[in-house]
Amino acid sequence: MRRRASTPAALLAAALMMALAGCSPPGNDATADGDLRKGDIAFESCSLSAVGARAVEAQCAGFTVPEDHQAPDGRQIELAIALLPAKSPAEPDPVVMIAGGPGQSALESYPTVAAAFADVNRARDVLLVDARGTGGSHPLHCKDEDGDNAFGAEDMTPGAMRAFTGRCRDALAAGSDLRRYGTMDHVRDLELVRQAIDAPRLNLVGISYGTRVAQQYAKAFPQSTRSVVLDGVVPNSMVLGQEHARNLEQALDAQFARCREEPACVGNLGDPALQLPAVRAALEAGDLATVSYRDPVSGEWLEETPTFGHLAILLRMFSYQPAAAATLPLLLHDAANGRYAPLLAQSRMLMASLGDQMAHGMQLSVICTEDVSEMAALPGDDGSVLGNEMVALFQAQCDAWPTAPRADGFRDPLAGDLPVLAISGEFDPVTPPHYGDEVVAHLARGRHLVASGQGHNVIGTGCMPKLFAQFVERADAQDIDATCLDRLAPAPPFAGYYGWEP
Protein backbone atom coordinates (compact mmCIF):
# COMPACT_ATOMS: atom_id res chain seq x y z
CA MET A 1 0.00 0.00 0.00
CA ARG A 2 1.14 3.56 -0.67
CA ARG A 3 0.55 6.64 1.40
CA ARG A 4 0.70 10.23 0.26
CA ALA A 5 -0.48 13.51 1.75
CA SER A 6 -1.37 16.60 -0.24
CA THR A 7 -2.03 20.30 0.27
CA PRO A 8 -4.47 22.27 -1.86
CA ALA A 9 -2.36 25.05 -3.28
CA ALA A 10 0.13 23.02 -5.31
CA LEU A 11 -2.52 20.57 -6.42
CA LEU A 12 -4.27 23.53 -7.98
CA ALA A 13 -1.27 25.43 -9.29
CA ALA A 14 -1.65 24.13 -12.83
CA ALA A 15 -5.29 24.94 -12.73
CA LEU A 16 -6.21 23.48 -15.32
CA MET A 17 -6.63 21.71 -17.05
CA MET A 18 -6.95 15.61 -24.07
CA ALA A 19 -10.44 9.27 -40.43
CA LEU A 20 -8.96 11.38 -42.94
CA ALA A 21 -10.77 11.53 -46.27
CA GLY A 22 -9.23 9.57 -49.09
CA CYS A 23 -9.03 12.59 -51.40
CA SER A 24 -6.43 15.32 -51.33
CA PRO A 25 -8.03 18.79 -51.26
CA PRO A 26 -6.55 21.64 -53.30
CA GLY A 27 -3.51 23.07 -51.54
CA ASN A 28 -2.73 19.74 -49.86
CA ASP A 29 -0.17 18.00 -52.06
CA ALA A 30 -0.30 14.27 -51.31
CA THR A 31 2.82 12.16 -51.73
CA ALA A 32 2.86 8.64 -53.12
CA ASP A 33 2.62 7.05 -49.67
CA GLY A 34 -0.39 9.14 -48.66
CA ASP A 35 1.53 11.75 -46.69
CA LEU A 36 1.02 15.44 -47.30
CA ARG A 37 2.76 18.73 -48.01
CA LYS A 38 1.45 22.18 -47.13
CA GLY A 39 3.63 24.98 -48.40
CA ASP A 40 7.13 24.36 -47.07
CA ILE A 41 6.14 21.68 -44.54
CA ALA A 42 6.09 17.96 -45.33
CA PHE A 43 3.73 15.98 -43.08
CA GLU A 44 3.65 12.27 -42.32
CA SER A 45 0.73 10.10 -41.25
CA CYS A 46 0.33 9.87 -37.49
CA SER A 47 -2.21 9.17 -34.77
CA LEU A 48 -3.17 11.54 -31.95
CA SER A 49 -4.28 9.94 -28.71
CA ALA A 50 -5.49 10.96 -25.26
CA VAL A 51 -6.64 9.01 -22.22
CA GLY A 52 -10.38 8.41 -22.39
CA ALA A 53 -10.74 9.55 -26.00
CA ARG A 54 -10.76 7.84 -29.37
CA ALA A 55 -7.51 8.15 -31.35
CA VAL A 56 -7.52 10.61 -34.24
CA GLU A 57 -5.68 10.00 -37.50
CA ALA A 58 -3.72 13.06 -38.61
CA GLN A 59 -0.66 14.31 -40.46
CA CYS A 60 2.29 15.37 -38.28
CA ALA A 61 5.52 17.28 -38.78
CA GLY A 62 8.28 19.09 -36.98
CA PHE A 63 8.93 22.78 -37.60
CA THR A 64 12.05 24.60 -36.48
CA VAL A 65 11.90 28.11 -34.98
CA PRO A 66 14.38 30.33 -33.14
CA GLU A 67 14.16 29.96 -29.37
CA ASP A 68 14.66 33.73 -29.15
CA HIS A 69 12.82 35.49 -31.96
CA GLN A 70 15.06 38.52 -31.42
CA ALA A 71 18.12 36.35 -32.14
CA PRO A 72 17.06 34.29 -35.18
CA ASP A 73 20.55 32.86 -35.68
CA GLY A 74 20.74 31.55 -32.13
CA ARG A 75 19.52 28.29 -30.64
CA GLN A 76 16.72 26.61 -32.59
CA ILE A 77 13.92 24.47 -31.18
CA GLU A 78 11.51 22.15 -32.95
CA LEU A 79 7.75 22.50 -32.67
CA ALA A 80 5.40 19.55 -33.00
CA ILE A 81 2.55 20.32 -35.40
CA ALA A 82 -0.33 18.30 -36.81
CA LEU A 83 -2.85 18.81 -39.58
CA LEU A 84 -6.28 17.25 -40.01
CA PRO A 85 -7.07 17.73 -43.70
CA ALA A 86 -10.54 18.87 -44.65
CA LYS A 87 -12.97 16.17 -45.75
CA SER A 88 -13.80 18.12 -48.92
CA PRO A 89 -11.82 20.64 -51.00
CA ALA A 90 -10.37 22.93 -48.35
CA GLU A 91 -10.83 26.64 -47.98
CA PRO A 92 -7.43 28.38 -47.85
CA ASP A 93 -7.76 29.56 -44.23
CA PRO A 94 -7.34 26.72 -41.70
CA VAL A 95 -8.78 26.51 -38.21
CA VAL A 96 -6.16 26.54 -35.45
CA MET A 97 -7.00 25.06 -32.04
CA ILE A 98 -4.94 26.66 -29.27
CA ALA A 99 -4.80 24.58 -26.08
CA GLY A 100 -5.19 25.75 -22.50
CA GLY A 101 -3.24 25.41 -19.28
CA PRO A 102 -0.91 27.18 -19.64
CA GLY A 103 1.16 24.08 -20.25
CA GLN A 104 -1.21 21.81 -22.18
CA SER A 105 -0.32 20.15 -25.48
CA ALA A 106 -2.61 20.87 -28.43
CA LEU A 107 -1.79 17.53 -30.07
CA GLU A 108 -2.46 15.59 -26.88
CA SER A 109 -5.67 17.41 -25.96
CA TYR A 110 -7.29 17.54 -29.41
CA PRO A 111 -8.77 14.00 -29.33
CA THR A 112 -10.90 15.00 -26.33
CA VAL A 113 -12.57 17.78 -28.37
CA ALA A 114 -12.27 16.30 -31.86
CA ALA A 115 -16.02 15.73 -32.16
CA ALA A 116 -16.60 19.46 -31.72
CA PHE A 117 -14.45 20.13 -34.81
CA ALA A 118 -16.13 17.55 -37.09
CA ASP A 119 -18.39 20.07 -38.82
CA VAL A 120 -15.78 22.77 -39.26
CA ASN A 121 -13.29 20.15 -40.51
CA ARG A 122 -15.52 19.37 -43.49
CA ALA A 123 -14.41 22.45 -45.39
CA ARG A 124 -11.27 23.55 -43.56
CA ASP A 125 -8.05 21.96 -42.40
CA VAL A 126 -7.58 21.91 -38.63
CA LEU A 127 -4.06 22.89 -37.59
CA LEU A 128 -2.53 22.04 -34.21
CA VAL A 129 0.73 23.46 -32.89
CA ASP A 130 2.12 22.38 -29.53
CA ALA A 131 3.12 25.60 -27.79
CA ARG A 132 6.85 25.74 -27.17
CA GLY A 133 7.57 24.10 -23.81
CA THR A 134 4.64 21.65 -24.11
CA GLY A 135 3.95 18.25 -25.67
CA GLY A 136 6.43 17.57 -28.44
CA SER A 137 7.71 21.15 -28.67
CA HIS A 138 10.86 21.21 -26.53
CA PRO A 139 8.80 20.40 -23.38
CA LEU A 140 9.62 21.94 -20.01
CA HIS A 141 8.63 19.34 -17.42
CA CYS A 142 9.59 19.63 -13.76
CA LYS A 143 10.31 16.34 -11.98
CA ASP A 144 11.85 15.42 -8.65
CA GLU A 145 14.45 12.71 -8.08
CA ASP A 146 11.70 10.07 -8.00
CA GLY A 147 10.27 11.21 -11.32
CA ASP A 148 7.20 12.82 -9.74
CA ASN A 149 5.84 16.16 -10.93
CA ALA A 150 4.91 19.01 -8.61
CA PHE A 151 1.51 17.46 -7.91
CA GLY A 152 3.20 14.45 -6.32
CA ALA A 153 5.49 16.31 -3.95
CA GLU A 154 5.18 15.34 -0.29
CA ASP A 155 5.95 18.86 0.97
CA MET A 156 3.98 21.54 -0.86
CA THR A 157 4.65 24.51 1.36
CA PRO A 158 5.82 27.69 -0.43
CA GLY A 159 9.38 27.19 0.76
CA ALA A 160 9.51 23.61 -0.45
CA MET A 161 7.99 24.49 -3.79
CA ARG A 162 10.45 27.36 -4.24
CA ALA A 163 13.26 24.83 -3.77
CA PHE A 164 11.56 22.35 -6.15
CA THR A 165 11.28 25.11 -8.74
CA GLY A 166 14.91 26.09 -8.32
CA ARG A 167 16.02 22.53 -8.99
CA CYS A 168 13.80 22.37 -12.06
CA ARG A 169 15.20 25.68 -13.30
CA ASP A 170 18.76 24.42 -12.95
CA ALA A 171 17.96 21.15 -14.73
CA LEU A 172 16.22 22.84 -17.68
CA ALA A 173 18.43 25.92 -18.06
CA ALA A 174 21.28 23.98 -19.66
CA GLY A 175 19.21 23.47 -22.81
CA SER A 176 16.57 26.20 -22.60
CA ASP A 177 16.34 29.94 -22.13
CA LEU A 178 13.36 29.82 -19.76
CA ARG A 179 12.53 33.47 -20.46
CA ARG A 180 11.46 32.57 -24.02
CA TYR A 181 8.44 30.33 -23.40
CA GLY A 182 5.63 32.83 -22.83
CA THR A 183 2.49 33.79 -24.69
CA MET A 184 4.09 36.17 -27.17
CA ASP A 185 6.76 33.61 -28.09
CA HIS A 186 3.95 31.17 -28.99
CA VAL A 187 2.18 33.92 -30.93
CA ARG A 188 5.28 34.53 -33.07
CA ASP A 189 5.66 30.77 -33.61
CA LEU A 190 2.08 30.55 -34.91
CA GLU A 191 2.74 33.34 -37.38
CA LEU A 192 5.84 31.54 -38.70
CA VAL A 193 3.82 28.35 -39.12
CA ARG A 194 1.10 30.28 -40.98
CA GLN A 195 3.66 31.65 -43.38
CA ALA A 196 5.28 28.25 -43.87
CA ILE A 197 2.02 26.53 -44.86
CA ASP A 198 1.06 29.41 -47.19
CA ALA A 199 -2.20 30.14 -45.38
CA PRO A 200 -3.41 33.69 -46.08
CA ARG A 201 -5.21 33.94 -42.73
CA LEU A 202 -6.09 31.81 -39.71
CA ASN A 203 -9.33 31.08 -37.89
CA LEU A 204 -8.27 30.92 -34.25
CA VAL A 205 -10.00 28.76 -31.64
CA GLY A 206 -8.63 29.44 -28.18
CA ILE A 207 -9.61 27.24 -25.25
CA SER A 208 -9.21 28.62 -21.70
CA TYR A 209 -5.64 30.00 -21.48
CA GLY A 210 -5.58 29.55 -25.26
CA THR A 211 -8.03 32.45 -25.47
CA ARG A 212 -5.25 34.71 -24.21
CA VAL A 213 -2.98 33.46 -26.98
CA ALA A 214 -5.71 33.96 -29.60
CA GLN A 215 -6.38 37.54 -28.52
CA GLN A 216 -2.69 38.42 -28.43
CA TYR A 217 -2.16 36.89 -31.89
CA ALA A 218 -5.11 38.82 -33.32
CA LYS A 219 -3.69 42.05 -31.82
CA ALA A 220 -0.19 41.42 -33.12
CA PHE A 221 -1.17 40.07 -36.56
CA PRO A 222 -4.63 41.39 -37.46
CA GLN A 223 -3.93 40.98 -41.17
CA SER A 224 -3.29 37.26 -40.56
CA THR A 225 -6.53 36.69 -38.62
CA ARG A 226 -9.89 35.93 -40.27
CA SER A 227 -11.98 35.02 -37.20
CA VAL A 228 -11.62 34.17 -33.50
CA VAL A 229 -13.52 31.77 -31.23
CA LEU A 230 -12.90 32.12 -27.49
CA ASP A 231 -14.06 29.17 -25.34
CA GLY A 232 -13.71 29.83 -21.60
CA VAL A 233 -12.67 33.45 -22.02
CA VAL A 234 -9.57 34.90 -20.34
CA PRO A 235 -9.65 38.69 -20.74
CA ASN A 236 -6.29 40.32 -21.37
CA SER A 237 -6.85 42.23 -18.14
CA MET A 238 -7.06 39.02 -16.10
CA VAL A 239 -4.18 38.02 -13.81
CA LEU A 240 -4.02 34.24 -14.04
CA GLY A 241 -4.50 32.75 -10.57
CA GLN A 242 -5.62 35.93 -8.83
CA GLU A 243 -9.39 35.46 -9.02
CA HIS A 244 -9.61 31.66 -8.84
CA ALA A 245 -10.63 31.62 -5.17
CA ARG A 246 -13.45 34.13 -5.65
CA ASN A 247 -14.74 32.48 -8.82
CA LEU A 248 -14.75 29.06 -7.22
CA GLU A 249 -16.81 30.28 -4.26
CA GLN A 250 -19.42 31.71 -6.59
CA ALA A 251 -19.56 28.50 -8.65
CA LEU A 252 -19.94 26.34 -5.54
CA ASP A 253 -22.68 28.60 -4.19
CA ALA A 254 -24.61 28.12 -7.44
CA GLN A 255 -24.10 24.35 -7.42
CA PHE A 256 -25.13 23.95 -3.78
CA ALA A 257 -28.24 26.08 -4.33
CA ARG A 258 -29.37 23.53 -6.89
CA CYS A 259 -29.28 20.77 -4.25
CA ARG A 260 -31.32 22.90 -1.84
CA GLU A 261 -33.89 23.42 -4.60
CA GLU A 262 -34.20 19.66 -5.21
CA PRO A 263 -36.24 18.02 -2.40
CA ALA A 264 -34.67 14.58 -2.90
CA CYS A 265 -31.12 15.94 -2.80
CA VAL A 266 -31.44 18.08 0.32
CA GLY A 267 -33.82 15.58 1.96
CA ASN A 268 -31.54 12.57 1.49
CA LEU A 269 -28.13 14.18 1.74
CA GLY A 270 -28.55 17.44 3.64
CA ASP A 271 -27.41 20.92 2.65
CA PRO A 272 -23.90 20.69 1.13
CA ALA A 273 -23.24 24.34 1.97
CA LEU A 274 -23.57 23.45 5.68
CA GLN A 275 -21.63 20.20 5.38
CA LEU A 276 -18.63 21.73 3.61
CA PRO A 277 -17.40 23.76 6.65
CA ALA A 278 -17.80 20.73 8.93
CA VAL A 279 -15.91 18.44 6.56
CA ARG A 280 -13.20 21.04 6.08
CA ALA A 281 -12.75 21.47 9.85
CA ALA A 282 -12.42 17.72 10.34
CA LEU A 283 -9.85 17.42 7.56
CA GLU A 284 -7.80 20.40 8.72
CA ALA A 285 -7.72 19.12 12.30
CA GLY A 286 -5.29 16.48 11.07
CA ASP A 287 -6.19 13.67 13.48
CA LEU A 288 -8.02 11.35 11.08
CA ALA A 289 -7.11 7.71 10.68
CA THR A 290 -5.70 6.38 7.42
CA VAL A 291 -8.27 5.12 4.95
CA SER A 292 -8.01 2.19 2.55
CA TYR A 293 -9.49 2.73 -0.89
CA ARG A 294 -9.02 1.54 -4.45
CA ASP A 295 -7.35 3.59 -7.14
CA PRO A 296 -10.24 4.28 -9.58
CA VAL A 297 -7.94 3.81 -12.58
CA SER A 298 -5.57 0.97 -11.69
CA GLY A 299 -7.72 -0.81 -9.09
CA GLU A 300 -4.72 -0.90 -6.72
CA TRP A 301 -5.50 -0.74 -3.01
CA LEU A 302 -4.05 2.41 -1.44
CA GLU A 303 -3.88 3.83 2.03
CA GLU A 304 -3.90 7.56 2.77
CA THR A 305 -4.77 9.98 5.52
CA PRO A 306 -7.55 12.32 4.32
CA THR A 307 -6.51 15.98 4.21
CA PHE A 308 -8.10 19.23 3.13
CA GLY A 309 -5.97 19.03 0.00
CA HIS A 310 -8.02 16.07 -1.21
CA LEU A 311 -11.22 18.02 -0.75
CA ALA A 312 -9.85 21.19 -2.33
CA ILE A 313 -8.71 19.50 -5.54
CA LEU A 314 -12.05 17.72 -5.80
CA LEU A 315 -14.06 20.91 -5.37
CA ARG A 316 -11.84 22.85 -7.73
CA MET A 317 -11.81 20.39 -10.59
CA PHE A 318 -15.24 18.79 -10.26
CA SER A 319 -16.88 22.14 -10.69
CA TYR A 320 -15.44 22.37 -14.21
CA GLN A 321 -18.10 19.90 -15.37
CA PRO A 322 -21.65 20.18 -13.97
CA ALA A 323 -22.27 16.48 -14.67
CA ALA A 324 -19.43 15.65 -12.28
CA ALA A 325 -20.34 18.45 -9.88
CA ALA A 326 -23.74 16.78 -9.49
CA THR A 327 -22.00 14.20 -7.28
CA LEU A 328 -20.61 16.76 -4.82
CA PRO A 329 -23.58 16.66 -2.40
CA LEU A 330 -23.19 12.88 -2.13
CA LEU A 331 -19.41 13.02 -1.59
CA LEU A 332 -19.77 15.73 1.07
CA HIS A 333 -22.54 13.76 2.77
CA ASP A 334 -20.31 10.66 2.93
CA ALA A 335 -17.35 12.65 4.27
CA ALA A 336 -19.54 14.37 6.87
CA ASN A 337 -20.45 10.90 8.09
CA GLY A 338 -16.85 9.70 8.27
CA ARG A 339 -16.75 7.88 4.92
CA TYR A 340 -13.72 9.34 3.14
CA ALA A 341 -12.91 6.59 0.62
CA PRO A 342 -15.04 8.07 -2.21
CA LEU A 343 -13.47 11.50 -1.70
CA LEU A 344 -9.95 10.03 -1.77
CA ALA A 345 -10.64 7.96 -4.88
CA GLN A 346 -12.08 10.83 -6.86
CA SER A 347 -9.36 13.20 -5.72
CA ARG A 348 -6.66 10.77 -6.76
CA MET A 349 -8.16 10.31 -10.21
CA LEU A 350 -8.17 14.07 -10.77
CA MET A 351 -4.68 14.57 -9.33
CA ALA A 352 -3.12 11.81 -11.42
CA SER A 353 -4.49 13.20 -14.67
CA LEU A 354 -3.59 16.82 -13.92
CA GLY A 355 0.12 16.55 -13.31
CA ASP A 356 1.08 14.76 -16.49
CA GLN A 357 -1.10 16.95 -18.73
CA MET A 358 0.62 20.21 -17.85
CA ALA A 359 4.22 21.18 -18.60
CA HIS A 360 4.96 22.87 -15.29
CA GLY A 361 8.03 24.74 -16.54
CA MET A 362 6.16 26.30 -19.45
CA GLN A 363 3.35 27.27 -17.07
CA LEU A 364 5.85 29.09 -14.87
CA SER A 365 7.43 30.85 -17.87
CA VAL A 366 3.99 32.25 -18.71
CA ILE A 367 2.72 33.15 -15.25
CA CYS A 368 6.00 34.43 -13.84
CA THR A 369 6.52 36.82 -16.76
CA GLU A 370 2.92 37.86 -17.39
CA ASP A 371 1.01 37.66 -14.11
CA VAL A 372 2.84 37.21 -10.82
CA SER A 373 3.92 40.84 -10.49
CA GLU A 374 0.23 41.78 -10.18
CA MET A 375 -0.75 39.02 -7.76
CA ALA A 376 -1.63 39.97 -4.19
CA ALA A 377 -3.22 38.26 -1.21
CA LEU A 378 -6.81 39.49 -0.87
CA PRO A 379 -8.39 39.64 2.61
CA GLY A 380 -11.76 38.78 1.09
CA ASP A 381 -10.41 35.39 -0.03
CA ASP A 382 -9.41 34.31 3.49
CA GLY A 383 -11.59 31.43 4.58
CA SER A 384 -12.58 30.46 1.04
CA VAL A 385 -11.85 26.97 -0.28
CA LEU A 386 -8.66 28.15 -1.98
CA GLY A 387 -7.90 31.14 0.20
CA ASN A 388 -4.69 32.95 -0.79
CA GLU A 389 -2.58 29.80 -0.95
CA MET A 390 -2.44 29.66 -4.75
CA VAL A 391 -1.16 33.23 -4.89
CA ALA A 392 1.47 32.48 -2.23
CA LEU A 393 2.56 29.38 -4.09
CA PHE A 394 3.00 31.12 -7.44
CA GLN A 395 4.87 33.98 -5.80
CA ALA A 396 7.25 31.51 -4.15
CA GLN A 397 7.90 29.59 -7.35
CA CYS A 398 8.37 32.71 -9.45
CA ASP A 399 11.03 33.92 -7.03
CA ALA A 400 13.16 31.13 -8.50
CA TRP A 401 12.14 31.36 -12.17
CA PRO A 402 13.75 33.54 -14.89
CA THR A 403 11.47 36.11 -16.52
CA ALA A 404 11.48 38.48 -19.47
CA PRO A 405 9.85 41.91 -19.70
CA ARG A 406 6.15 41.68 -20.51
CA ALA A 407 5.20 42.99 -23.95
CA ASP A 408 4.01 46.59 -24.15
CA GLY A 409 0.22 46.82 -24.33
CA PHE A 410 -0.20 43.21 -23.19
CA ARG A 411 -3.15 44.10 -20.92
CA ASP A 412 -4.90 46.18 -23.60
CA PRO A 413 -8.12 44.57 -24.84
CA LEU A 414 -8.59 43.16 -28.31
CA ALA A 415 -10.62 45.80 -30.15
CA GLY A 416 -11.88 46.65 -33.63
CA ASP A 417 -14.17 44.96 -36.14
CA LEU A 418 -12.67 41.45 -36.20
CA PRO A 419 -15.39 38.74 -36.07
CA VAL A 420 -15.21 37.16 -32.60
CA LEU A 421 -17.46 34.53 -31.03
CA ALA A 422 -17.04 34.14 -27.26
CA ILE A 423 -18.66 31.16 -25.53
CA SER A 424 -18.98 30.46 -21.81
CA GLY A 425 -20.58 28.00 -19.41
CA GLU A 426 -23.05 29.37 -16.87
CA PHE A 427 -21.37 27.58 -13.94
CA ASP A 428 -17.75 27.94 -15.09
CA PRO A 429 -15.63 28.32 -11.91
CA VAL A 430 -12.47 29.65 -13.56
CA THR A 431 -13.62 31.81 -16.48
CA PRO A 432 -17.15 32.87 -15.51
CA PRO A 433 -19.46 34.43 -18.11
CA HIS A 434 -18.78 38.03 -17.12
CA TYR A 435 -15.26 37.58 -18.54
CA GLY A 436 -16.78 36.99 -21.97
CA ASP A 437 -18.94 40.08 -21.57
CA GLU A 438 -15.82 42.11 -20.82
CA VAL A 439 -14.05 40.96 -23.98
CA VAL A 440 -16.89 41.45 -26.48
CA ALA A 441 -17.63 44.93 -25.10
CA HIS A 442 -14.59 46.15 -27.10
CA LEU A 443 -15.52 44.34 -30.34
CA ALA A 444 -17.93 45.83 -32.88
CA ARG A 445 -18.49 42.38 -34.41
CA GLY A 446 -18.22 40.35 -31.24
CA ARG A 447 -20.92 38.17 -29.70
CA HIS A 448 -21.06 36.21 -26.45
CA LEU A 449 -23.08 33.01 -26.04
CA VAL A 450 -23.62 31.47 -22.58
CA ALA A 451 -24.44 27.75 -22.33
CA SER A 452 -27.03 27.33 -19.60
CA GLY A 453 -26.10 24.96 -16.79
CA GLN A 454 -22.64 24.16 -18.22
CA GLY A 455 -19.11 24.45 -16.86
CA HIS A 456 -15.65 25.15 -18.27
CA ASN A 457 -15.11 24.74 -22.04
CA VAL A 458 -18.38 24.31 -23.91
CA ILE A 459 -17.34 24.08 -27.56
CA GLY A 460 -18.47 20.45 -27.67
CA THR A 461 -21.73 20.94 -25.75
CA GLY A 462 -25.16 20.49 -27.34
CA CYS A 463 -25.49 22.35 -30.64
CA MET A 464 -22.37 24.47 -30.02
CA PRO A 465 -20.26 22.58 -32.61
CA LYS A 466 -22.74 23.52 -35.34
CA LEU A 467 -22.88 27.15 -34.19
CA PHE A 468 -19.08 27.23 -34.12
CA ALA A 469 -18.91 25.83 -37.66
CA GLN A 470 -21.51 28.32 -38.92
CA PHE A 471 -19.54 31.18 -37.42
CA VAL A 472 -16.30 30.10 -39.06
CA GLU A 473 -18.05 29.60 -42.40
CA ARG A 474 -19.69 33.04 -42.38
CA ALA A 475 -17.21 35.01 -40.22
CA ASP A 476 -20.27 36.69 -38.74
CA ALA A 477 -21.34 36.06 -35.14
CA GLN A 478 -24.46 38.22 -35.34
CA ASP A 479 -26.00 36.10 -38.10
CA ILE A 480 -26.11 32.89 -36.03
CA ASP A 481 -29.41 31.55 -34.68
CA ALA A 482 -28.38 30.31 -31.22
CA THR A 483 -31.85 29.42 -29.90
CA CYS A 484 -30.84 25.74 -29.88
CA LEU A 485 -28.77 26.51 -26.77
CA ASP A 486 -32.02 27.08 -24.88
CA ARG A 487 -32.44 23.30 -24.72
CA LEU A 488 -29.33 22.88 -22.56
CA ALA A 489 -29.85 22.13 -18.88
CA PRO A 490 -27.55 21.16 -16.00
CA ALA A 491 -27.38 17.60 -14.73
CA PRO A 492 -29.61 17.31 -11.63
CA PRO A 493 -27.75 16.90 -8.32
CA PHE A 494 -27.39 13.35 -7.02
CA ALA A 495 -29.86 12.28 -4.36
CA GLY A 496 -28.05 9.01 -3.55
CA TYR A 497 -25.78 6.35 -5.05
CA TYR A 498 -28.46 5.66 -7.65
CA GLY A 499 -27.94 9.13 -9.10
CA TRP A 500 -30.67 11.70 -9.40
CA GLU A 501 -34.39 11.38 -9.13
CA PRO A 502 -36.22 10.52 -12.38
Automatic annotation (TrEMBL):
Belongs to the peptidase S33 family. Residues 94-241 form the AB hydrolase-1 domain. InterPro entries: AB_hydrolase_1, AB_hydrolase_fold, Pept_S33_TAP-like_C, Peptidase_S33, Serine_prot/Carboxylest_S33. The keyword Isomerase does not apply. Residues 1-21 form the signal peptide. It comes from the Bacteria. Residues 387-484 form the Peptidase S33 tripeptidyl aminopeptidase-like C-terminal domain. Gene3D superfamilies: alpha/beta hydrolase (3.40.50.1820). It holds the Pfam family Abhydrolase_1. Keywords: Hydrolase, Signal. It comes from Luteimonas terricola. This is Cysteine proteinase.
